[in-house]
Specification:
It is a single chain. By secondary structure, the protein is an all-alpha fold. It has one domain. It contains seven helices and no strands. α4 runs antiparallel to α5 and α5 packs antiparallel against α7. The radius of gyration is 19 Å and the shape is globular.
């Protein structure tokens, strides 16, 4: 069954003059359980990268140029951003592997555009709007990371 939309809850409140607390809690539980999968996957992959990937990359001595590191971290921010607080912790741990300007791109894009935000937007907005918004945020985050690189050097 489809989740209750905001409009249905508002319509219900106009009829009864109060929100049925049980319906509201059921709606909140459904939303949380649908997003729980994305939170779990992000936490799992990031834990694997930090425990196994980081030591391997450091021992191998691999470094990425900034023009490729920025898009990589922007994609990671989209797929693995959980919240702005965890983004800061993840960004700090990634700062030893990637240039600081790409980490700044990660920190800028993560809270604005991630997979859970797109999932929520898909329920209420047309796909064309989501695509335009995503492209705009990604381009602006990339440009902000490049500007940060320019001022850093």
């Amino acid at each position: 069954p489809q989740n209750l939309s905001y409009e249905e809850i508002v319509l219900e409140t106009t009829k009864t003059k109060h929100i049925d607390k049980k319906r509201l809690l059921v709606h909140m539980e459904r939303e949380f359980s649908q997003l729980l999968f994305y939170f779990s996957m992000a936490a799992t992959v990031l834990s694997i990268v930090q425990v196994y990937g980081k030591p391997w990359l450091l021992n191998a001595g691999l470094t990425l140029p900034e023009f490729t590191a920025i898009p990589i971290l922007l994609m990671l921010a989209f797929f693995f951003s959980v919240c702005s607080t965890s983004d800061a912790i993840i960004g700090k741990s990634l700062s030893t592997l990637f240039p600081i300007s790409s980490v700044m791109g990660f920190l800028i894009l993560g809270p604005m555009l991630d997979i859970k935000n797109v999932y929520i937007l898909k329920q209420y907005m047309p796909t064309s709007f989501i695509i335009r918004l995503s492209i705009t945020i990604a381009v602006m985050s990339y440009m902000a990371a490049l500007v940060f690189k320019f001022f850093l050097s």
